[in-house]
Write a structure and sequence with these properties.
Blueprint (H helix, E strand, L loop, with lengths): L5 H10 E2 L3 E2 L8 E3 L5 H12 L4 E5 L5 H9 L2 E4 L5 H8 L4 E4 L11 H17 L4 E5 L12 H14 L5 E6 L1 E2 L15 E3 L6 E5 L1 H13 L1 H4 L3 E4 L2 E4 H12 L5 E3 L2 H6 L1 H12 L8 H7 L6 H6 L3 H7 L11
Parallel strand pairs: 3-4, 3-6, 4-5, 6-7, 7-8, 8-12, 9-11, 10-14
Antiparallel strand pairs: 1-2, 11-13
Amino acid sequence: MCRLPARLQRYICVTFNDDEGFAMTNSTGPILVFGATGQQGGSVARALLEAGRAVRILARNPAAPAAEALRTAGAKVFQGDFEDPASIRRAMQGADGVFSVQTSSPGGEITDAQEIAWGILVADLAAECGVRHLVYSSGAAVGDRPTGMGHFDSKMQIEAHIRALPIAATIVRPTVFMEMLMMPGFGLDEGRFSFFMTPDQSMEFIAVEDIGKLVSAVFADRERFVGQTFDIAGDRATGRDLERVFSATAGRPIPYARFSDEVLAANPFLQKLTALQDQGSLAGSADLDALRALVPDLLSFESWLAGSGNPQFVAALKASGNWAYSQ
């Protein structure tokens, strides 16, 4: 259906949709969410459903628990994946919006080349099908110049491709996930914590659940956000702030220190990320006041750790292990 002439394509693909019926306007039409069985996509899908939007998701296995949970919550589940463009096109027909996110290479599941190809594919199909609003999730360290780190530079290429397409798009750049701090290898199981910044340097963080709230707000105000690229975060904290909050939550001292020179020398990946922190790109540049005006209940690190993040923190205090990424 989406290969018809432009005018008919836009009329059929956008104004009429197969599962939500005919609509005189398309501002509240269905939104196709990629990565919905993962962290970011799942957060976005849930937030959109809570906001009353019609949500579609693409799942390799529609019977997977995460997909079934979203179906139960009201999402329409389409079977497909990035290796099957026809399945994406079917799910995208009649969609008003698309949320695009791809897995990054440090997880070891895909390559940088795959991430680029899939991000470009989603954007191209969204333009082809006349989608009114594409929201792409990039990364806070991404900018106009290469970083020398593939999983950031891959997103830079996807961003550039999106900007060259005839489609209304918004690019959000999430900062470091608060959940990332709970990964093994940072020392919580040893009663300490090490990370990228010096004790007095600051870094911005975001709870994954807040990504969905912010993206939902972006979709709800298309005219305001089309053409924009910006970092999204919920809080900014120094190493000393992390020490204070971790210690108060644990009820015992959790001292903070930057990764040692020995650790950085043994892990080039960590060393490069630490250099990006010193350069300022990894630290984030979100307008926290503007974001809190948009979503007043954005979580601070302290409130996240006391609430939804607390079970992860308790588990991290007992979970030994090494830093998982080495690319």
